[in-house]
Structures are given as structure tokens and as C-alpha cells.
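To: structure subgroup
Subject: Chain for Friday's discussion

All,

I'm putting the inputs and outputs inline so they're searchable in the archive.
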Amino acid sequence: MAIHPIEYRYGTDEMKHVWSEANRLEKVMKVEAALARAEADTGLIPREAAEIIEKSISAVEIKRVNEIEDEIHHDMMAVVIAISEKCTGDAGKWVHFGATSNDMLDTATALQFKEAVAILEEKMHRLLEVLLVQANDHKHLVCAGRTHGQIGVPTTYGLRFAIWASEVGRHIERLEQLKPRLLVGQMTGAVGTQAAFGKDGIEIQKRSMEYLGIGSVDVSNQIIQRDRHAEFVMWMANTVTTLDKIGTEIRSLQRSEIAEVEESFRKKQVGSSTMPHKRNPIKSEQICGLARIVRAMVEPELLNNTLWDERDLTNSSCERVVFPEACILTDHIIKLGIGVIENLRFYPENIRRNLDLLKGLNMGEAVMIELAKRGVGRQEAHELVRSSAMESHESGKHFKDVLLANPDVAKYLNENDIINLVDPDRYIGTAVEQVEAVVEKLKRN
């Protein structure tokens, strides 16, 4: 019976496979085979034994590994015994020779991270792509900018998407930068001295990791230090927070009284069990909700770096939850974000309605700047426009009409000036150029 929502509601099959029991066992045994090859290269074990070990791992079954673990209560030793049982001759006695459990387990985790990162990278590039498309398509779509939840000067939807795209671009850059620190394995023995490997310990580690296609730690004790893993978990938390931010903005803009954008809503989709009219932003809400779970993984993984002496086991049980959940939910959130952004519906008539909602008051800065340019001191211009804005607000008159009736304004601005200054389409600065620059910089080759 399924218990955790990841089992039946959240996550992609490809990311779930990375963290499946079968893939985990496969990666652990792959590390055992790489060790045997490296040890044979240095003459520590017979070449024939290494070849037999490598061939035998394909015959090992999860069921048998679990049976052994139930009996001996040690997960790694259960794998060692299961491999040894499949080896012919005396090759089995060379399985895991000189290694400690976490040489296998932490290195196997690095292999899983490598697969997970590849999946996340591809989706992040797709997310960037859909953001850039929306930015470019809507670079001329003028809308109300808002600060403190209040309408401010105009902006464009293209600029909003470009800002988000730029942030995602930085996440992609960060992921590329952290890979050399994250995707490393170790072969250092009981407390990191490589004593059991003898004089060739450093070479054995180097060759093992080359066979596996990942980097090597510089130094270790019994485990790979968790600052590396914490950096990745924090990257995931940072990434989903960007999507949380996007989702929160979409939810706000979809509010009935704003109604500028809307998540796609399928023909037979139901919004509420009791209110048939509802069209709720459920995907954005799911993004925001699940982002909280991923962020909550940061502290446990940071604490997994504070272990006793050369190590203890407090990190192990914690990471069995943190790594798969964080990766699966992050992947799921990115996928949701791609779908929401790509299929977002815009309502230009509502965008224009909200842009004009304050009857020109949101254009006060434009008037103030022009007055200052024409000889009114900046502070005097600010007060002149502020007092006119308050009058417009209290009377309900259009800001343009209040300005036209003000003799102090009329000294510097004529009717045509004021009409142009309260036109929001004329006051978007370099928004279009900024969008075009971001699109050009970040578009995928």
C-alpha cells in the first residue's frame, strides 16, 4: 500500500528511478567492480578475481541482499556477501578488499547525484527557454508595476519574465559550478588513511573514480564531507524558491479582482467541489507548497556535516529521506513550473484596466521628473505632484484634469505635455531593451 505522496502523486518516473532501490544497488555494485579493477591494476588482487567480481554483480538480486541484511543487520555487508556468493572460485574473498562501507555508499551516492543533476539540468534549460519565450513575446505588453501591493509606475510583462529568466540562468550557472564539488567519490578505508590499500591507496582511489567517471576527494575520513551535499540541497532550495516566487506572483495576478493572467484550465477541469465557477491556480499553489518541503531539507543536511570524530551514523538515516525527497520534489516543481509558464493565459483587457485604474495617478513620477527637467527643483516638483495626486485621490478626478487646473503646473507644462506624461505606454524606459539583452545573453545555443 502506498503511503508517501511521492509514491503516487508527485515526481517523474526518471527521477524516481534514480533513487529506486534497484538503481541504488546497481550503483553500489558498480563501485565494488571499479574498486576491484583498480586493485587489480595495482597488483593488490588477482586480475582474474576482478574480472569475476565484475561479471558476478549482474546476477545479484535485491531479494537476496535484503534477506542477508535482515539476518546480519548491515546493509553494505549484505551486498558484499551477496556478490561473493555469485563469484566462482576464490574470487569472492577479494570483494570489498581494503574498503569501508562508505567508500561504496558515498561513491554510489555521487553516481546517483550525477544522474539526478543531468535530469535537473535538462529541465532547468527548458524552464529558461519558456521564460525567455514569454519575455520576448510580451516585451511590449505594458502593465501596472506594483510595490507594497499598490500600483506604481508602469512596467512590462516581458521585463517580469526576463527577471525570472535571469535568475534561472544563475541557478543553471551555480549547478554547473557545484558539479565538480558534488560529483566525487572516495576510496580511503576505515578512517581515511588508506592503510588497508598499502602504498597504492592514492592510485587505487584515482583509478576507481576514473572507471566510474567522477572526481576524487582530496582527503577524507570515513565519509565524504557533507558540505558538498549541503551545497546541492541548498541549490535545490534556492531553485524551488525562485519557482515559489513565480508561482506566488501568478497566484496574485490571477486573483478575481486583478485577473491579468491565468493558469491553463482544461475543458473538464473542476475548480471546486461546491463552487462550480472556480478556476483556481492549483499548480502554482502546489509549487509554492512543495517548495516549503524542499527548503526544510536544508537544515538537516547542514547538520549531517557535524558528526562525531571520523564519523557516526546520524547522517545516514536522515539522508535516506533528504536526498530522494529533495531531488524528486525539485524535479517535480521544475516540471510544474515549465507547464504553468508555457501555458499561461493573458488577459490584455484586464491588464489595461488595471494600468488605468488609478486615473493617471501612477504617472506622478513621470510628471515630477519632467517638471524638474524644466526648472522646478526636484523636491519642489515632488511636493507639487504629491499635492495634486492627493487632490485627485480625494476628489476622484482624473490626475490629468487636476494637473491641467493647477496654475503652478501650467507655468511649465501645457495640455499636450500633460496628456503625453500620463500615458503609461510612454513611460517604460529601457524595459524593452533590457528584455532583448537578457534574451540574447541567455538563449540556448
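Points worth raising on Friday:
Residues 163 and 360 are 26 Å apart (CA to CA).
The two ends are 46 Å apart (CA to CA).

D.
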